[in-house]
Amino acid sequence: MDLKALSASLNLSMTTVSRALNGYSDVSEKTRQRVIEAARTLGYQPNSVARNLALGRANAIGIVYPLEAGDVADPRFLEVVSGITEGLAPANIDLLIASASHKGELDSYDRMIHSRRVDGFIVARTLVQDERIDYLRQAGVPFLAYGRTAKSDDYPWFDFDNEAGSVLAVERLVRLGHRHIAYIHASLHYNFAHQRHAGYLRGMHDAGIAPQTDWLLQAGLARCSGYAAMEQLLARPVLPTAVIVDNNLAGVGAVQALIDRGIVMGRDISVIVYDGIPPDTLLMGRQITSIIQPTQQRTGERMATLIQQVIANAMPLSELQMLCQPELLPGDTDGPCPRH
């Protein structure tokens, strides 16, 4: 049974039957009910592709993501994707992930918009100055930013209070007697890294400690980069008594470098890692002291709800901006300053 046959059985035009099934107000309620009843009786199943094209919907959300080496191996990234997928499933909405180079991201957005493959976007790993946000705003396309930018007042976003998290880490180490605190961070072009770096500086300032510049090291979002950064730190003539790593990917490598050197965390040096580290990491039975946020699964589900609300355009902007507070999860990789 197709639309043509259904229309013939009712002695109505295909246009009238289609508009009745899609709820258009120019079709009377009596005719609409007659069409719906006939469709049910005759077993008519609408062509969802054609229906979505007619309504201008793709029933899909897009993420254009410049995948880096560590992303696929990062279970937290996969958990976020899983949470978004689960959150969209009840509405029969798919999640499309397009991998793109950093230089080709806007081209990917442009192709997906003009081919009408998605109804909106989730913009991941936002930058301090993010041209993707500007592009989508100018294009008038619904989107949700996973993370704020320098200007975050007039668009929907989901984020964590990254600055507050780093302050928590510094305050804990200071209470343990540490004043020589190193910091390994991602590129400050990423807004999460910029915010966490600002929190580290604020925490140090509040404690009356001047950060030592050669203990501030940038590392890529990969295990090997964190390992190399920790090796550089250990080669300094004067060593810190504590280290904060601002992301879990570099954190894995940094911790592994200490283990390989036979350095005991919590005794010889204190370590705090933002987001902890994946459970498959060999930690010699240690529990990493971490700054934690809501589970990645829950994060993804929240974003799925928000992007659907953005597309529906039924809520004020203030209810489409969500900031979650971090917590400090104590472990056994930090302890009293050994030289305090």
Automatic annotation (TrEMBL):
GO terms for molecular function: DNA-binding transcription factor activity; transcription cis-regulatory region binding. Residues 1-55 form the HTH lacI-type domain. SUPFAM superfamilies: lambda repressor-like DNA-binding domains, Periplasmic binding protein-like I. The keyword Ribonucleoprotein does not apply. Keywords: DNA-binding, Transcription, Transcription regulation. It holds the Pfam family LacI. InterPro entries: HTH_LacI, Lambda_DNA-bd_dom_sf, Peripla_BP/Lac1_sug-bd_dom, Peripla_BP_I. SMART domains: HTH_LACI. PANTHER family: HTH-TYPE TRANSCRIPTIONAL REGULATOR GALS, LACI-RELATED TRANSCRIPTIONAL REPRESSOR. This is Transcriptional regulator, LacI family.
